[in-house]
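Exam revision sheet. Question 4 asks you to relate a sequence to its structure. Input first:
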Amino acid sequence: MLKTFKVKNFKNFKEQVVIDFGKVGGYKFSQDCITDNVISKMIIYGKNATGKTNLGKALLDITTNFRDMNFWGDADYSYVNADALDKEVSFSYEFVLDGKNLIYEYSKFSSTKMKNERLIVDGQYIFDVDFDKKDFKFDKLDLVKAEEVNHTKYVAALMNEAGDIEKRTLPFVRWLIGNTALDSDNILLKLSDYIDRMTMISIGSVTNMGKFRYDNFYQFLDVDDRLEDFEEFLNKMGIECELYLEKMPDGAYQLYFKHENGLIPFVRNASSGTLALVRLYQRLASVRRASFLYMDEFDAFYNYELAENVVKVLKEKYPECQIVLTSHNTNLMTNRIMRPDCLFILSKFGLTPLFKATGRELREGHNLEKMYIGGEFSKYE
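Answer key, structure tokens:
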């Protein structure tokens, strides 16, 4: 699991922002927010333009080092903080996987041009690469049983004809994993698997679905027990219904609400909130194996009761997945479903857990929402 994350000079984060998933407060309630003594369910609050979306993008930046993909497109112009003196973005990820502690650190001048990269396993440097100074240290690869990789060939691949590092830098960790015959239980493969399953979704910006997408969704439901699973999901959200899926003679599908007096077309009669749940379910179904899920504006179209139900379902369905939610909904600021060490405020001061944002000792009986509205934590907003 991801234990600690640090980022500096990224977009609107000029100062370093730290998320310490290992800083558990020891509360005896809402223990389903904690997995293996690491925070696995978290809600982040913050005023508009504090960087909640950018924080998710920062967390997912590591995926661009492990996958051959362009996560940012043409957005390099806004990658580095405009006011930063050091024109580079630094990232640090600390993982606990299979009983080992892994720290993967790197810095970039842009989304594709790296300055340096290093990996530390249980306190030992495995590799340390300074692309800017062309300084490469690969002498500890044997500690992860990867000493046979041809790192000389890697260095040669980095250079252009003039002997300079190419603008689009190939991270060594990607080369290492892709060009070494590693055992299936190798810690590098476990790290790669975890990062491959990290993802971010923004519910607030993707609620509309055209006819084509509904057709695909209906076809998706006609496999195994997915229709029953979707029906159960809606019922747990407080939408009491029974569904019926019909395959038409032309191969198309139609979904209905099933009533005693007949069938009612689903899309034409579902509320906007129910249709938003369709999109949420569809997105969650596509990331069932997620190791880390950042859900931005997850409750943008839900009332307080529905938003609470979503949190409960996420905790029930994804107990092992680390899930970070962003919200403005203070009704979720309650010890019934969360806890003071899993509720955070993002501001210019960084990211602060509620139990560190007050001089009081927060207990199960405290009304966190009332305290928040009353200004108890205003110093950190």
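Marking note for examiners. DSSP finds eleven helices and 18 strands in the chain.
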